[in-house]
Write a structure and sequence with these properties.
With 458 residues, this protein is of the alpha+beta class. The protein has two domains: 316 residues, 2-methylcitrate dehydratase PrpD; 123 residues, 2-Layer Sandwich (60s Ribosomal Protein L30, Chain: A). The chain is built from 19 helices and six strands. The strands form two sheets. Strands 4-3-5-6 form a four-stranded mixed β-sheet, with helices on one face. Strands 1-2 form a two-stranded antiparallel sheet. β5 and β6 form a beta hairpin. α3 packs antiparallel against α4, α5 packs across α10 and α7 runs parallel beside α10. It is globular, with a radius of gyration of 21 Å. It starts with a helix and ends in a 17-residue tail after the last helix.
Length: 458
Amino acid sequence: MSGELDALVAHVAGTRFEDLPPVAVEKAKTFLLDTIGVGVAGSSGAAVDRLIQVCKGWGDRGEATAWVTGVKLPAPSAAIVNAYQIHCLEYDCVHEGAVLHPMATILSVLLAYCERRATAGRPVAGKDLLTAIAVGVDAATLLGMAARGPIRFFRPATAGGFGAVAAMARLEGFDHATTRNAFGIQYGQLSGTLQPHLEGVPLLGLQIGFNARAALTSCDLAGAGFMGPQDILTGRYGYFPLYEGDVYDMGPAWAQLGKVWQVARLAHKPYPSGRLTHGVIHALRVMRDDHAIDYPEIERLDCHVPNLVARLVGRPDIPDPAANYAKLCLPFTAGVWMAKGTCDIPDYQGEALRDICVHTFAERVRVIEDDNPDPNSMEPQRFVAHLRDGRAVEVVLPHVYGHPDVPLTAEENRDKFRRCWSYASPALPPERADAVIQFVEGMEGAADVAALVPLLVA
């Protein structure tokens, strides 16, 4: 049986708030605020109202809240809705080394769970929430970091589900055996194909919700004494052989347990599109600001990117894309920026998807796979603008804006949150955004995390 799983379980079960370095606490709050913001904005995403109606049909026990609308649902159903809202706009944070969005799965479960606990007279303190976030992000990202082959399944759902189990096991104070059983039960419910990513359909975000719901039921079952399979990582039919194609190396990732907190290595998404499309925006900003290039001067833009970028977002621009397709299309996103000098939520909605000017610029973009041998690498990226006057301007990006080494400032994080707040549907009072910011930034002193949720309801 996997000694690595035992090490991970010990990390989950044994970590206390006092074990977290200041940077991990700070970043846990940073990405807590960011994730709440994109989840609030996601209330305006495609088919949220229909999803809520479906979930209401699965039971009316009002344990937890769908953000913004305030609809009361059983905790597992609330986790599905809020996970979908967090990811449906492609605006949630990502761990680049693991190629996954851990917070969507983790936070959607945690806040639903905290509401259920509060109703039962067992409120969750802010310090405990931050600790759960930190160990949950570690659990999810270590799985992604250990993979060495090309991504085959949708890791935000698969590995993210394990992260959600870790976070809840920490909150519930599970012992080693119960935590291990919860991981095993989660493995039995794991799901997440990349086909919706390829086709650009909303099931992509729903898969995060499915695994969020599964995490809650996994912990409920383990807490009731159910046993799960034990050798779930490296067994004959374990996670790595089946989901990652037996191409993995757990050693380097596991060596970071308790030493490098992965919540401090998360990357922001400054724009509401796939993270792999952000490099072209960064490069175009540099061309405009540092080289004084007017975008109409660009005759052709060559984007030399790693295999991961070319494979997942190098898709061709099409005249009438679905929103999810456009968000995961590098040429379309480049066209948005060159046409408008901005990239925001309305740029991927309605008539904006058929904007002739956007598509005209997108036709000038070429995605070229470079010779980077790492199938999970997002960087470096190189962009060459061929201008109408015959000049060529090159920009090389070791890291893309939003990366932990090129981060958003604290004020930029707040600005993004307020901008997301403004897209809530139905609308939320603008002044309440600052109350949420204050709550999150003082999370260590919160006696009941569930008190945050009413602030998120219209």
